[in-house]
Amino acid sequence: MKKRLLFVLLVSISISLCFVPFKEALVIEHENSGRLIGYAWIGKSDRFKIQYTHSIHLSDVIETYEITNKNDVKQVELQYEDFAIGMPSEGVEGATFIEKDGRYYLKDMNLVFPFIDLRIGQVVANHTLLYQNRKIPFSSFVQEGKWIRIDYKYVNLWDIIKGVNILG
Predict the structure, then answer these.
(1) CA-to-CA distance for 146 and 143, rounded, in angstroms?
(2) Sign of the CA dihedral 76, 79, 84, 88?
(3) What is the pTM of this model?
(4) pLDDT tens digits, one per residue of 138-154
């Protein structure tokens, strides 16, 4: 009887441990459901970028982000080629505006978000995660046209098992 009770207790503890958050990651969730689609082991001191093709002027835009100590997502830079609709034609308060080699840069930005909501482009956008010289199109693990939430938080073993490590 004691062996059976001990076995049940160990199995219960093991299963419970699967749901205890233990490691921080950049997570991709289905809309605002909290349902994990994918994750990436990105440290707080690391920067990641999101690149996409602007739908009107069809040139590349690159947004650079980092994670704050409070696990918020902070935009620190914006690169683009055209001042057309949707792109700033001057600096943002507190940011440095630079023109170099036909591209425009807003550096030292300090736009802090609890998360980023993003609809994956169906036609032109080709939203892509850039991290450590790797390019991972969001469409490689999310259907185009879907809404995702990019967040930074603790994940548990169950999340890891059911999600996709987008960095391989």
Answers:
(1) 6
(2) positive
(3) 0.86
(4) 998 888 889 999 999 99
